[in-house]
Write a sequence for this structure.
């Protein structure tokens, strides 16, 4: 239990902060989407308090944007390695006992059948005709199957709170002297954005 809690908080802190960096970069680059999110927050939350988890249901664009950043970035292109505990057959392929199994998360989240024009950043993919947010099972940044990341729910809550609190208080603006914006990642344990400069402008 101690080890699981340690992993959930320690590993989750790094991944959540990294995806939050990506969110800041995308909001700076897509200022029109940032403005729509802020308008949504002002309508639902107002200016006298900060967003809460209970506000999520009324903030479809905000949730859709977070999902699209996660899909577009694909911080972990491959899942953790797993081992087949018994021989089985999947879609005609024989998987022997002891075989190493790796899920190609990048291929799933960039599947052109599930996501037309997968290279285009488009949060509207996650909003239905009724204007409601809907989750897509193809967006699987935390892995797939029964061995999905233990910190998924905690990370989702943290990301929503940090992201909305930032945009509630500040507008993220590209400084005049900043270099050209790039969405090229630096690959290590995960995909992190290259160093960038952002200006935080206090909202009235």
């Amino acid at each position: 239990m101690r080890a699981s809690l340690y992993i959930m908080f320690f590993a989750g802190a790094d991944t959540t902060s990294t995806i939050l960096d990506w969110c800041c970069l995308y909001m700076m680059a897509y200022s029109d989407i940032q403005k729509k999110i802020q308008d949504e927050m002002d309508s639902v939350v107002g200016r006298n308090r900060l967003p809460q988890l209970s506000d999520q249901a009324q903030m479809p664009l905000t949730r859709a944007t977070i999902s699209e950043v996660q899909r577009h970035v694909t911080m972990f292109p491959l899942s953790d390695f797993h081992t087949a505990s018994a021989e089985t057959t999947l879609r005609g392929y024989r998987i022997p006992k002891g075989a190493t199994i790796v899920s190609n998360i990048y291929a799933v989240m960039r599947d052109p059948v599930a996501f037309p024009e997968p290279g285009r950043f488009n949060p509207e993919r996650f909003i239905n005709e009724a204007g409601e947010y809907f989750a897509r099972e193809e967006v699987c940044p935390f892995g797939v199957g029964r061995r999905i990341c233990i910190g998924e729910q905690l990370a989702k809550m943290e990301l929503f709170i940090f992201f909305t609190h930032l945009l509630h208080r500040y507008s993220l603006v590209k400084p005049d002297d900043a270099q050209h914006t790039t969405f090229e990642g630096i690959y290590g344990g995960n995909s992190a954005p290259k160093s960038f400069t952002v200006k935080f402008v206090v909202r009235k």
User: Anything to note?
Assistant: The mean pLDDT is 91. Strands lie at 82-83, 88-90, 93-95, 100-101, 170-173, 185-187, 191-193, 199-202. The radius of gyration is 19 Å. The first strand starts at residue 82 and ends at 83.
